[in-house]
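Much of what follows relies on a compact textual record of a protein's fold. An example makes this concrete, so a full record is given next.
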Amino acid sequence: MAGELYHDRMIGMLEAVWGEGFLSPGGPEEVARLVAGTDFADRSVLDIGCGAGGIDMALVKTHGAGYVCGIDVEDTVLAHARALIAREGLGHRIGCLKVAPGPLPFPPATFDIVFSKDSIVHIPDKAALMAEVFRVLKPGGRFVASDWLIGSDGPPSPRMADYIASEGLDFGMASPDRYREAMARAGFERIEVTSRNEWYRRQARVELERLKGPAGEAAARIVGRDFVDENIGIWSRMIPVLDTGEHCPTHLRACKPG
């Protein structure tokens, strides 16, 4: 639909890099690394920013989640996710709900786990977000997420500002310290903030080479050569700020007291 950040061309482009149903790096392997140490078996899960559906299917098929409620703000990604979920016959274990930005539309203590992968970068008020996550978790519930962080708060460097502008997305990046503070203020315990910068520095170079090679050629037949070239430019701007550490993909984990 007009005005959406994740339109059909964007979804097709990102799936060419990261796999069907995935709009963020690492595919099911990075999901597995993120959820390691958290028991998802038969748990009720809220996925904030469910995107194109691949992650929620992995949480159910590979990690045994009992039911996943995926939420997003855009119709196109939700339609894409619903089609994949229906194709896999998982509609009884995964639901996709369109929500408006703001407070989460669920009663207190609804979910065992609140999950998110590289989506809450689009939510600038981390303190309000963490308060809402804490509210909808059951006592003893877990917050498990990854996100794209910036190395420190304050104005980004010119190189980082250029990269963010090239993405054309509504990034509301925050530092590791701001995330820790927001989680602690909400009431979370056992807070973990783990950098994934070293991994993604390597992975982004692999992705760029794929975009310049057969994966990019295949994507160009779907989304157009111009759009592939635009994304090659984005990756080329991203790698230098990964190298400096200013762009810092990160795993986030915390527990609501029981």
User: Anything to note?
Assistant: The two ends are 43 Å apart (CA to CA). The first strand starts at residue 44 and ends at 48. The chain has a mean pLDDT of 94. The first helix runs from residue 8 to 18.
